[in-house]
Amino acid sequence: MRVLITGVTGFAGSHLADYILENHPEVELFGNCRWRSPLDNIAHLIGKFRIIMGDLTDPSSERHVLEASKPDLVFHLAAQSYVPASFQQPRETIATNIACELNLLHGLREKLAGAMLVAGSSEEYGSVSEHEGPIDETHALSPLSPYGVSKVAQDLLAYQYHKSYGVHVVRSRAFNHEGPRRGEVFAPSNFAKQIAMVEAGKQAPEILTGNLEAARDYTDVRDVVRGYWLMLEKGKPGEVYNLCSGAATGKWAHKAPRRTVWKIGEVLTHLLGLSTIKEIAVKTDPARLRPSDVPYLYGDFTRAANELGWAPEIRFPQTLEDLLRYWRLKINA
């Protein structure tokens, strides 16, 4: 089996490569990235799979990537995925995320690839109040950022291509996921990096933050990429699946972690509790506040449980410990 991961040098892409190489030795793995992409996240995997450089926003480059890899399965993870950046660069975010997927969908239609996973986001749900949770896949899509809008467009394009042309596409809506290698612009990772910097004496004993009141349903990235694999192995073409730690019904209810929704401030408090420095100030940085923010996200993974046999396994406190350990090693390298 030949498998292509787009955005392989990214956070989820690198963990998916780890998962496939460890659990599916029968796979011939290919990874796509742009020529300027840093390779730090996959440095430990160099030589274990083939990297194909190419810009998926360019149809000819995308065609080269598919013709060179001839994939049975495509995991499409490449995207501009940082929500605050999407407010600063809405045109680039929307154009990039839609163009990459459209070019790949056209390749599937031409039989240059077999099946494709499109990595969506809980940001598609957007404006959700606490009493509406847990959110399942039938919930209305009301994105509150250009990034969320781009993900809704990707989601619906995948559905349209499946219905119109019969291509095998499965859609994910992964809620917030964290873990080692998470980009430092994302709140939990940024907090962990700042704490590691303070511990190393490279930053004053204070943490700069944005909105600490937003509440999120967090999952470990290593659970999420396992879910991605199961979606193309067992998922129904055209279907959409939540990946989250929130809630499940029936025989899967016991698989939901005891605590599923964390305020950003609670994440920071937990990380500070893991620090070797006990006196660290917390200061709000206005530059880190968004024009609008999703206040509350709490998901339901019953469909993924029933149809894929997927449920989260790694509890979030362990994720945060692993994340802080990652930054300590990186800061002190």
Your description of this structure?
The chain is an alpha/beta fold and 333 residues long. It has 2 domains: 2-177 and 218-243, NAD(P)-binding Rossmann-like Domain (Rossmann fold), CATH 3.40.50; 182-216 and 257-298 and 314-331, UDP-galactose 4-epimerase, domain 1 (Alpha-Beta Complex), CATH 3.90.25. The protein is 39% helix and 17% strand. The protein contains 10 helices and 13 strands. The chain has a 7-stranded parallel β-sheet, sandwiched between helices. Strand 1 (2-6), helix 1 and strand 2 (28-33) form a beta-alpha-beta unit. Helix 8 (264-274) crosses helix 10. The two termini are 37 Å apart.
Please tag this protein with its features.
333 residues, alpha/beta, 7-stranded parallel beta sheet
Itemize the secondary structure elements and their pairings.
Elements: E1 2-6, H1 11-23, E2 28-33, E3 50-53, H2 59-69, E4 73-76, H3 83-88, H4 90-109, E5 115-121, H5 146-165, E6 168-174, E7 177-178, H6 187-199, E8 206-209, E9 215-217, E10 219-220, H7 221-234, E11 240-243, E12 261-263, H8 264-274, E13 281-284, H9 302-308, H10 316-331
Parallel strand pairs: 1-2, 1-4, 2-3, 4-5, 5-6, 6-11, 7-10, 8-13
Antiparallel strand pairs: 9-12
Helix pairs in contact: 1-7, 2-4, 4-5, 6-8, 6-10, 8-10
